[in-house]
Design goal:
This protein is mostly helical and about 110 residues long. It has one domain: Four Helix Bundle (Hemerythrin (Met), subunit A) (Up-down Bundle), CATH 1.20.120. It is about 60% helix and about 0% strand. Helix 1 packs antiparallel against helix 2. The chain is elongated. The two termini are about 30 Å apart. The relative contact order is 0.16. The structure holds zinc ion. The site of zinc ion has 8 residues, from loops.
């Protein structure tokens, strides 16, 4: 039986909407980065001295993938009623904290930043 959430339905709806927007944004940005990489490959093909792809891009993409995974996990946790609980100590993560970082899985005491 799913546990009852400490958050009100409207708070949950707000957090879920925020995550779904982030989710869509990340999907788009990952798609764009892929397209950008492909165009870089095409450019490099004809260029005499192709430059290395920016290392920053790889870091950003990795971060986008990590956030994407975190958000999809958080959305699943809303469905199971486990959302908003610290995965380490089990205490409630405050709504204020989740409003800033809705995919958070640790409370502030457990070392969130
Ligand atoms: Zn905790």
């Amino acid at each position: 039986m799913p546990r009852t959430s400490a958050f009100s339905p409207s708070q949950l709806r707000e957090l879920r909407t925020e995550m779904e927007q982030d989710f869509a944004r990340l999907l788009r940005s990952m798609g764009n980065e892929q397209a950008a990489t492909e165009s870089w490959v095409n450019d490099a093909w004809s260029a005499e001295s192709p430059s290395e792809p920016d290392e920053l891009d790889a870091v950003l993409q990795e971060r986008a993938h990590a956030r994407f995974a975190a958000i999809s996990a958080a959305l699943r946790r809303i469905d199971t009623g486990a959302y908003g609980e610290c995965v380490r100590c089990g205490s409630r993560i405050s709504f204020d904290r989740l409003a800033v970082m809705p995919e958070a899985t640790l409370c502030i005491a457990c070392g969130g930043n």
